[in-house]
User: Fold this.
Amino acid sequence: MPRQGPAGFDMPNEMRAFAEKSVEQARAAFDSFVSAAQQAVNTAQAQAVSAQTGAREVGELALRYAEANISSSFALAQRLMTAREPGEIAAIHADYVKNQIATLSEQAKELSKRATKMAGDGKQN
Assistant:
């Protein structure tokens, strides 16, 4: 039996299951991003004084990524508020999840790459 959604219409169980799975995937991707960011920050903090500039750059990059991700979430909320039908909500959400997973994966890769480079640079000094 469909449950009533946030906009006052009945949401089919299949759509709800799809939305829940999408949220789980987005959470997993975000957790991966957070883990990579934490690793980058921890690695940066462990480096010698000569690596402080690199640590600051990684921290600034992580903050820029966080700001972009928050902006993306607000944009999603605005798009969802304009949706008129359940199918449109599902399409907007699916597009957001797909794009956010790709974005978070790229951000995690870049943060990990920079942290690894910093760790290597610190060992050479």
